[in-house]
Amino acid sequence: MKHALIIGGTGMLSDCCVQLAKQGYxxxxxxxxxxxxxxxxxxxxxxxxxxxxxxxxxEEDKLQTxxxxxxxxxxxxSLVVSWIHSTAPKAAQVLIDEVALSEKPxxxxxxxxxxxxxxxYKESLSLPSxxxxxxxxxxxxxxKGGSRWxxxxxxxxxxxxxxxxxxxxxxxxxxxxxxERPGF
Length: 184
Ligand SMILES: NC(=O)c1ccc[n+]([C@@H]2O[C@H](COP(=O)([O-])OP(=O)(O)OC[C@H]3O[C@@H](n4cnc5c(N)ncnc54)[C@H](OP(=O)(O)O)[C@@H]3O)[C@@H](O)[C@H]2O)c1
What we know:
The chain is of the alpha/beta class.
């Protein structure tokens, strides 16, 4: 079965996780709160398609161990969806290094907030030749008379679409002109 690793999958990416399970992925989801994990698990059929990796991604050793165990059980990861806060600057590289150990091709979807610098993020990572890096930049929605941030559902659907389209770079919503972002 195709194995997907989702980091921060219990918040705005919850619906995306459910969609990936429907597409046949075995999911390993990293987050800390078990109740939020269980809320997603209830939506996944069969529940065995989802494994909870209850770990704080700022603790690199624990993150590495959890991913290694998940790969031992479910096989090589072919898809990584990564939403990681700036509190864990090394976590993305830990994921890449662990997933790369199996030497199988994988896609790494890096979800970034509107104000991030995608080029700097990409350049900060060391990717093996079998790792295909994809940036998904989150933006905002322009509306009559102003703008608003994306809803969770828009983010999840946009990320699922980005995975399907498989382009090296895509945005969900709009990021330009930056001066038109909400609250500016
Ligand atoms: N347009 C934009 O640019 C943009 C960008 C970013 C966010 N937003 C909005 O801002 C809101 C807040 O963002 P958010 O980051 O709180 O999003 P979120 O996706 O709702 O929650 C963060 C996810 O990461 C997990 N997580 C956080 N810290 C973790 C850690 N140290 N270790 C392991 N897992 C961790 C959380 O689970 P646990 O808490 O259980 O660990 C959860 O699954 C979002 O709801 C979104 O709508 C907009």
